[in-house]
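Supplementary Text 2. Reproducibility record for the structural model of the 299-residue chain.

All settings were left at their defaults, and a single model was retained for analysis rather than an ensemble. We include the record here because the model underlies the residue-level annotations in Supplementary Table 4.
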Amino acid sequence: MQKRRQPPAVPSMTMRRRYNMAAEKKLSKKALKKSFRNWYYGHLTCFSQEHMQTFGYLCAMLPLVEELYDTKEEQKEAMETYTAFFNTEPQVGSVIVGVTAGLEEAKANGNQDVDAETINGIRAGLMGPLAGIGDSLVVGTLIPILLGIALGLSSGGSVVGPIFYIVVWNLLITFGMRFLYFKGYELGGKAVDILVGEQATAIRESIVMLGTMVVGAVAATWVSVKTSFHLVNDAGKEFLNLQNQLDSVYPNVLTAAFIIFCWWLMSKKRVSPVVTMLILVVVAFAGVVVGFFNPGLKY
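Retained model, structure tokens:
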């Protein structure tokens, strides 16, 4: 009697799940750390007005693409995604690199909702809002606060101030950028809902307001402009002291006027900080010559 041929065994659902889990591509911690280091140290690689941070972004994505794709053709195609123009605030912008790392991983695993166009659209959509948030938070708030503390510690020529600034700045930026990068990787495309829209606008406006207050406080604390102009009568007795008169109406009005003048030059007239400082030197020199300012120098 002829034996029946047994039909081929159908893999169970458990076996299929195990196979899929084994086949799923997952970025290693080593590749992610290398990508972060490339961005941290090289986000201004080959910086130019034409490309800005494009090459730095390519350097950051290279170790991830090499791990996710096996062939040179696939790697080349993936890297083409990141040749588009890119520029943002590099510290806060670390989250964008992390987000695209998560999206590239999903794309390598065959996610139909993620392609090169999607990734580039998210990059382009995030770099503008995060540039505003980063400039307000880092340049407009964090740096003035650290400089204000460092200036206070530097009184009397102490080296504690500059050491404090260098150490604290590097610690905050290093751990902050690292946190944002890996948080962006965890969130992936979900980060767009958090970083763009009304919530992001409210955050950005709050940071701008805080930064403006900090800059104003630092200016009021460390900038002092006073006049030595006064008039005396025939007997040599002073009958007009302009500084006292101004202080009776509006204390430190000259300081406020100089700060507003500098803001007007740089914000409204687009004058560079170097040219603004040169203008202030000329104003100070002319003021000393006509007797409006007194530097207090003795020869």
